[in-house]
Automatic annotation (TrEMBL):
Gene3D superfamilies xrefs: GntR ligand-binding domain-like, Winged helix-like DNA-binding domain superfamily/Winged helix DNA-binding domain
Protein name: FadR family transcriptional regulator
Organism: Pengzhenrongella sicca
GO molecular function: DNA binding; DNA-binding transcription factor activity
InterPro entries membership: GntR_C (IPR011711), TF_FadR/GntR_C (IPR008920), Tscrpt_reg_HTH_GntR (IPR000524), WH-like_DNA-bd_sf (IPR036388), WH_DNA-bd_sf (IPR036390)
HTH gntR-type domain mapped to chain residues: 1-56
Amino acid sequence: MIIRGDLGPGDRLPVEKELAEAFGVSRGPLREGVRALVLLGVLGTRRGSGTYVTSLDAARLLSPVGFFADLHQPASSAHLSAVRRVLEVEAVGHAAAVITDEQLDMLASALDEIDHELAGAGNGNLEAVIDADNRFHTTIARTGGNPVLAALVESLVSRTFRSRLWRAIHERGANERTQSEHRAILDALRRRDPDAARIRMAGHLLAVELSVEHQDEGSADHIEPFG
């Protein structure tokens, strides 16, 4: 019904009896199917009201990709990183053509916050670094105006994955280099140069991948304060 367009975002599903008759199934399998679609973000329930089609926005429907990324085995890490690289390089190219001064200021603010923590001026808080790094990359992904591309970038690079990246970066003493790469990306965006932005992003992500590959498997789950 949803795929055919009979039901759209915000529409209420017919009552259970009608659905069972329409699909020629008993109520048991029907309920399982509805539950599965709720888990996938296609349907949502409202207490005392019924089951409705969600907004079907890309971020909601692609969020399970992040769960897969969190479950990945070390052997598949390189594959996920390669996909991330393709997506983010494309996203930054789109962003360079349309980015506003306000969005550039948001990116600069995120990098300033990372610098603040890395210099030990803050609490040396890894979580703060991850938050700022996430804002930097997701702002770029969203700026290009392609919600599906942005949702894929955000889903693939979950908080768990980003935490692992920064552990690897910190353990290799690559904090300053990583920030230099971020600044180079921002500079290309300020110049509204899509080709330069793509090159800078690709170089940055390849360097991060190298850090992850060399990460000590026996490292602790917590990084000591920066500085």
